[in-house]
Structure formats: C-alpha cells, structure tokens
Amino acid sequence: MRLIIFLAGICMTLSWGLTWIDPPFAGAALSPMAMVSDGSITLGRDSAWQAWVFLGGFAAAALAALIALRGRGAGLFALLAGLSPLIVLGDALLAAETLRRDLGLPFPIDLADLRASWSLVEGFVRIGFWAYLAGAAVLLLAGIRTLLPRR
Fold first, then answer.
1. Taking a C-beta distance cutoff of 8 angstroms, is the pair 90, 79 a contact?
2. Are 68 and 5 in contact (CB under 8 A)?
3. Which of 58, 24, 25, 61 is nearest to 41 (CA)?
4. For 97-107, what is each residue's pLDDT tens digit?
5. Is the model's pTM score more than 0.90?
C-alpha cells in the first residue's frame, strides 16, 4: 500500500506544475502553479477557506508520498489529499449559480449542470487535470483502506 500511496502522491503533487486547461480564449495555459504565480490564488489571512483546502491538498499529497517513501503509515495524509478536491467541488456545486453571476459569463450556462459544464471545457482539459484527479482518487481510496479497521 505504501508504494501505491507514494505513486499517487507523486502524481497529484506533480500535477501542480502541469497544464490543466489550455483554453484558446484565456491566454496562457492554466495550472495551479501559474494561478499562484499570477496572484489568482493566494494564501493569507483573508484567503477563502477553499484556497486553503485546494492548496493544502497538494501539501498533503506530497507529505503522503514522502511518509510512504520513508516506510511509515501515510494513510491520514492520503485521505486528506484525496478529500480535498471533493470538498472544493462540493462547495463549488453548492455555489454554482452565484459563481456564474460573479463571473459575468457572456453566454448562458448552468454550472450546476455537470454535463453542460463538461461539454464546455472538455476540449481544453490537459494532462495536469487528469493527473490531479487520478492521484486524488487513488489517495482517497488508499487512505480509507489504510485507516479502516481490519477484520
């Protein structure tokens, strides 16, 4: 299980610098590292809790990989890393209508409708997004598996 946590943690951590979305209308390719570099995402006293959870997921993934590499139990950090995207996504879905209004999108789209949202961006999604999701999913399952009592 340590090898699985190590590989999934590395996968999720490396997605930090990989391109997630490469839209033709937004200029440069988007990645978490690029968003932090340009100030789109900041951590500080006044930062939204969602930013802390999102960025904290990368830290938890890196710690899970490091702890697993050292031969220790990394289940808690794996679980935290795997839960981070679900928490941020859940909040985004609950606030989808407000987000749509705040973004001032020039076209009608219901962000609460995942199918419509996906059809809008699917052609622009790149490897970093998939590495993030795969790493998070495996870390979530591995974290649950290692923390559940054995029968």
1. no
2. yes
3. 58
4. 676 666 665 55
5. no
